[in-house]
## 1
Amino acid sequence: MNESDKKLIEMYKTLPKKIKPPKDLWDQIDKRLTNKFSLKDSIAYFFNNFKDLILTKKYVFAYSLIGICVISFGLLFFFNVSNQNKPDTQYALAEKELQDIVLDYEKARSKIIKLIKDKKEFFSDETIVSIQTNMSLMDETIKEIKIALKNDPNNYELLASLTKVYFEETNLLFKTSNLMKNYDN
Amino acid sequence: MELNKLEEFELVKKIQKGNKQAFKTLYTLYVDKIFCLSYRMVNDSHIAEDLTQDIFVRAWEKINNFGFKSSFFTWLYRLAVNVIIRKKEKTNRIAEQEADVEIEELYKNDVAFESEKIESFIDCEKALKNLPNQARYVFILHDMEGFTHKEIEKIMNISIGTSKAHLFRARKLLKEELSL
C-alpha cells in the first residue's frame, strides 16, 4: 500500500458513518413485522416464553390457578344451592310431604271421630263442641286452600300453607286422641 | 442514546421473546448507520430505504440466531451486508433506471454535519458512486468497513484474488477521480 492509497483510505474513513434516511422507516417496518407475526411466530413466541411463564411467573400462575378453582367451586356451590331452592323443586318436595301428612290426618281424624262416638258419655258437651268446631274450622281452611290451589296449581305458597294446616290439625287430633285415651284409662 | 453491551444484550433477549418496542429501540440506534451503508452500496436513496427496511425485517426474523458472541451491531452489520449483496442484481438494475442520487440533499438535511466538510464528503461520495459495482462493494467493505479479503470472499461469493483485483481497481479509479 503506497502513500496515495493511505491518503485515500484516510479520506474515506472520515466519511460519516451515519446518514439519516429522508423519511422515518419504522412505520413500514412495523407493518411488515405485524404481517409476518403468523401462527408459526405465535407458537415460537409461546415456546420462547413458556419457561418464563412456568418459572419466573410461577407464583402468579399458581395464585391464578387457585383463584380459578375457588371461583369455579363457588359457582358450582351457588348453582347447586340455587337449584335446591328453585320453586319447582320446593313444590315437588311440598307435594310429597303433603301426601304423607294427608294420610296421617285421615288416620287421626277417623280415630278421634271414632273415639268421640264410642266414648261420648265421658266428655262434656262443651268439650265435644270445642273439638268439632276446631275440626270444622280447619276443614274449612283446607277446603279454601284446595279451591285456591285448583285455580293456581303451581302456587308453592298455597301448597305450603295447606301442608302447614294439615300438619297442625293432625298434631291437634293426635293430642286430642291421646288425651281422650288417658281420660278413658 | 448509547447503550453498553449488557443493556444491548438485554434488549436483544426481549426481542427474542417478541418485544417489538425493544426492537424499535435498537432500530432507532442503528437505522442511520444501516441506511448509510445501504446508500453507499447502491447509490440510490429510495433503494437504500427499501434495503434498510429489508435488513431490519430480516434482523427481526433471524434474531434467535444471535449468539451473544459479538455486539448486536456487528451481527446486524454483517446481516445488512449479506442482504445488500444478495439483492445487488435487482438493486443495480433499478439504480440505473432511477434519477441521480440526492447525496447533497441527504447531507444538507442532516444537521449533524459541519457545513465546511460537506463539500469534501460529497466529492468522495460522488467518486465512490462512479465506481463499477463490484469494485465499489469491495472498496467499501475492505477499506472503509475493515472486512478482510477472506470475509469478502464468503460474503460476495468471489475468490480472494478477484476481491484483491477489485480493490486495486477501485483505489486506482478513486485516486484519478479525486486527483490524488
## 2
Amino acid sequence: MMLQGKRSWVFEQPPVIIATGTVVGPDEGQGPLAADFDLVHPDMEIGQPTWEKSEKVLMEQATEIALQHAKLPQDKLNFFVGGDLMNQIISTTFAVRQLEAPYIGVFGACSTSMESLAVASLLVSTGAAEYVMAGTCSHNCTVEKQFRYPTEYGSQKPPTAQYTVTGAGASILARSGDGPIVTAATIGKIMDLGIKDPFNMGAAMAPAAVDTIQGHFQETGRDPGYYDLIVTGDLAGVGHPLASEMLQRNGVPMDRTTFNDCGLMIYDVEKQKVQAGGSGCACSAVVAYGHLLKRIRRGDLKRILVVATGALLSPLSYQQGESIPCVAHAVAIEAGNPGQGGANG
Amino acid sequence: MAVKGAGRGPGAYKPVSMSSKEYQAFAKAREPSRSIWTNCLKAFLVGGIICTIGQGVTQFFITVFNMSSRDAGNPTVAVMILLAVILTSMGVYDKIAQWAGAGSAVPVTGFANSMCSAAIEHRAEGLVLGVGANMFKLAGSVIVFGVVAAFVVGIVYWLFGIGAWHDVTG
C-alpha cells in the first residue's frame, strides 16, 4: 500500500537520487558547510545586472551540475518539478527554459525543496516518469526586495529575523541507480496559529513542522529512533526550540534521534550576522542535497527525515494584517541498497 | 508525557492542539529579548555623532564662506544627504543602521538613505517605472505625514499665536 494514513506515501519502488547539484553565494561559502557545495560564488551579483537574473543563474547552474553528475543528457528528463519565492516563481521558470523538460511549477515558499522532491519521487515511483529533476532556489537580495525593503535600506532587523540563503539545489531521481533512496514522504497541511510578524517566521512555521513530523510518525508507523537525523528546513534559532518543546509536550520521543535545523547548520550563527539563522527555499535544498546526501553517501548517516518548512505569506497579505499560513513537507531519505541497480547511463 | 515509550501507531501522540492565543503567548514567552536600553544608547550615540558632523559642516560654511548660521543650513543638509547617498551606494549605510537603529534612521541621512536605496534597487525596472515610481516608496509616507503634521501645527499656531518669539529672534 503506497498511501498510508491520509497524507503519507511509503514508496514500494523507492526512487533513487542519482545526482544532485548545489550552488551557493558568499555568505554560505563562509559557513561551516562550504566544502559540501558544488559551486560557491564569491559575490552576490554573479555577473548579472539584476538580482532576479542572479537568482536565475544559480538555478541554471544547479541543474547543469546535477545533469553532469548524473551523466544524463537533458533530453532524458521526463519532468522538472520546482519553484521559488519570487512572484510567479520566475527564477525557476526562467532557469528551466533551457532544459526543455516538461515543467511542473510548485510553490510552497521555503518548503518547496521537499514539496518538489516528494512530487518528483511520486512520479518516478509510480512509473509516471523515468527521470525527474526537482529543484529550487532563493537569493537574499531578491527576497529582501520583494518581501521587505530595498537591500541597501538601513533598517534594524530584530533578533527573530532570519537571513535568506543565496543558492540553488537540484536533484535527479531515477527508478534505479546508485545513490540514496527516497522511502517516504508526508505532505503537510496549512497551519496558522496567528503569528503576524514577518520578522518572526520561525515561530510562525514551528507548528507546521510539529504537525507534519507527528503525522509522519503516526501514519508510517515509524519512530523518531528510526532516523539518525531529523532536520527542519528553516525554523532557525527561534522556531526550532519552539518545535522541540511542542514535540516534547506532545510526547514524541525526539531524544531517540538527533533533531537539528538546516537554518542553524548552514551558517555559523554565532559569528555570521544572520540574526536567528538561515531561511529561504535554498536553505533546506542545499543543506539536504549538498551536506546531508554527502553524509549518507559516505555512510555517516543511514536514514534521515528532512522536514522543509514554508511561510506562505505575501507582502500584500501581511500589510493587510493577515497572519502567516505555514506548511511543512517531510521526505525520508535513506542509504541506497548497493545491490539495487547498476550504474546508470 | 505518559506516552513515552509508546511512540508508535496512530493516536500515540497528542495532536497540535494549542489555540492561536495560547501559541502566541507560548512563542512570545520564548522570544529572544530585544535590548531596548542598549538600542536607545546606540541610537543616541550614532544620532549624536551624525548631528555633530552636521554641526561641523555648518561651522565650516560659517567660517569659510562667511555665511550666517541660517544660510549655512541648506548647504549643510545637502552635504549630509550627499554623504548618506555615498555610504548607501557603497553598501555601508545599512550595516551602520543594523547597529545604530533609529540613530541612523531619524536624521536627514536616514531619509536620504530611504530614497537612494529604493532608487538603486529599482533601477533594474527602468528610469520611469523603476526609479521614478519607487524612489518615494519608503520616503513618501514621511512626506505625507510631515505635511499633515505641519498643517496641524500651523492651525495650532494660527489659533493661539504661540511661537511669536520666532519672528523676533529669526
